[in-house]
Amino acid sequence: MVCKKCSTTPVIKLSNSNISLCKSCFVRYFEKKVFKTIRTYNLIEDNDHLGVAVSGGKDSTTLLYLLNKLIKDRKDIKLTGIAIDEGIEGYRDKSLEFLKSFCDKNKVNLKIFSYKDAFGKSLDSILKSNKSIIPCSVCGVFRRYLLNKNSKELGFTKLATGHNLDDEAQTVLMNYFRRNIKVSARLGPITGVMNNSKFIKRIKPLYFMTEKEVTTYAYLKGFVDKYMECPNDSDSYRAQVRDMLNGFEAKYPGTKHSIITSFLEILPLLKNNIEYKDVIKNCSICNEPCSQDICQACKYVESLVKN
Amino acid sequence: MKVFIERTNEHREVKAETVRELLELLEINPTTVIVARNNELVIDNTKLNRRDSIKILSVISGG
Question: Strands (DSSP E) along chain A, which ranges?
């Protein structure tokens, strides 16, 4: 098999078609598709200050590189990387090291916020004294909280995240399995509660790229650092859905694309019916937006950090 | 051929004719990895030979 476009040696076979591409044709295909997503969904607008949520992993590094490349000639658009240091020894400290050197090399402004500074304890320390909690639940709440709060303080107009097609397909299925369709109404290439200044809009330029395509691009561009897996991730619900979905994809190529295409067809209905029914309040402790009187992050701080 | 599996940090010596056969022998789902032969990425029907040095890299995010 040879590259569909130029008949040289291929580096990838695309999963939703039978097309194989060589290194340079794949890089072109990848960048073209990401930039098309940005245009089609109007993810970037004049005078934006883009925050890019980065971790040093291949997805967010690829995203940061591409957005930096896209806006380099736009004087009206500003870009800042924002990273969260959960405090996971042997994992996050190493990925942040890679990230800092990447940002230095690419002249990207980077801001890092830690759980320890914001909540008083690192994730490692919280888990040590609370052995029965599900790490990903707490970590997800704290990470989203810090990203939203600090994005507003830094003046971002949008926050770009490295979510890819695999991530989104997993989330769609998880929400079905847990009868959590209301949460799915907030998904899509551009998310966030419209016209509400308490929430920063999230954009996902890698929305239509599979995890395999992102890894291939990152490898070819030299963004793949030593593989590291979060030590708390292996038993998560998401990890189980991911493994199941990958099993399906191997047997029935194109499954993940079909999930996303079908989901995007019903997304407008979900948004019209459900999204604005939530009443947004302000947390009585921290004043951040939430749906109850006290936000989940403050509840966790009370029960897990101050105990 | 010499095979390095990045996710488990394992070095193996394996005999296989193609990338597809190699992944089947190692019971690795091809959608979860990319494969490099002598540091160049290859696809599943690529023929391998015993002097090749293979790296199997995980595409799954670390969390």
Answer: 12-13, 20-21, 49-53, 78-85, 109-114, 158-160, 190-191, 201-203, 281-282, 289-290
Classify strands B2-5 and B53-58 as parallel, antiparallel or unpaired: parallel
- By Cβ distance, the residue of B29, B41, B57 closest to A12 is B41
Q: Tens digits of per-residue pLDDT, B9-19?
A: 899 999 999 99
* Residue A287, token pair as written in the block: 């004043």
Tokens of A153: 């303080």
Residue contact A11–B43, C-beta within 8 A? yes
Cα-based torsion angle of the residue sequence A93, A96, A101, A104 in order, rounded to the nearest 10 degrees: -130
Q: Looking at residue A218, what is its pLDDT? A: 95
Q: What pLDDT is stored for residue A134 in this prediction?
A: 84
With a pLDDT cut of 90, the percent of chain B lying above it is 87
End-to-end CA distance of chain B: 31
Cβ-Cβ contacts under 8 Å for A26 (sequence gap 6 or more): A11, A12, A216, A217, A220
CB A58 within 8 A of CB A88: no
Q: Which residues of A touch B (CB under 8 A)?
A: 1, 9-13, 15, 20, 23, 57-59, 91, 95, 136, 167, 211-212, 214-216, 219-220, 224, 227-230, 232-233, 236, 242, 246-247, 249-250
Q: Please report the ipTM that was assigned to this predicted complex.
A: 0.95
Which among A58, A233, A246 has the least Cβ separation from residue B29?
A: A246
Q: What is the pTM of this model?
A: 0.93
State the CB neighbour count (10 A cutoff) for residue A305: 17
Q: What is the DSSP string of A44-105?
A: S-TT-EEEEE--SSHHHHHHHHHHHHHHTT-TT-EEEEEEEE---TTTHHHHHHHHHHHHHH
Contact B57 A229 (CB under 8 A): no
Give the separation between CA A106 and CA A84, rounded to whole angstroms. Answer: 20
Strands (E), A130-288: 158-160, 190-191, 201-203, 281-282
A237 pLDDT tier (thresholds 50, 70, 90): confident
Which tens digit of pLDDT belongs to each residue from A272-290?
Answer: 875 556 678 889 999 998 8
